[in-house]
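Kindly inspect this chain:
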Amino acid sequence: MSETIIETPRFIMRKFELADAQAMYELNLDPEVIRYTGDKAFASVEEAYTFLQNYNPYATEGFGRWICVLKDTGEITGWCGLRMQPDMGLVDLGYRFYKRHWGKGYATETGLASVEYGFNEKKLAVITGHAMTENLASIRVLEKCGMIYWKDDNDEEPGAYYRVFASPQPLSIGEGQ
């Protein structure tokens, strides 16, 4: 297992490994898990493996999404972490967990740890999150991670961006509308 990037009371969060291909494939197989993501399921374990081979934000940005492993059982529950959105110049918090682990506070626990890591270790000024309007559970996680509504998404599906600053920022005129 690769080195621990973040440790929470219940989790070890680490970089993706090629050995995670089966878990990533199975995670994305559940249509409810990827319902609000815009992602398609991997066609095969081999496709998930190829994705992992080419996943390089750890080297290019110094952070990325991390596999979430329960400390007490060693079970992979999903992933959580930060990702650069180069088209918008933003760092995004994202998470995805097996449905059997929903409602246990895992996304909030690992999301808060990811935000803290981004601010304290990577000295980021702001971290954003995006959720489809219908995805109330994800919106609630973003809010529990300290994020507040920022703006609507201009995409095909109704969604919104949320954000949290490393330190309190004054709003400029017209912001937040």
The helical segments are 21-29, 45-53, 57-60, 106-120, 136-144. The chain has a mean pLDDT of 92. The two ends are 46 Å apart (CA to CA). Strands lie at 4-7, 11-14, 65-70, 76-85, 90-97, 126-132, 148-152, 159-165.
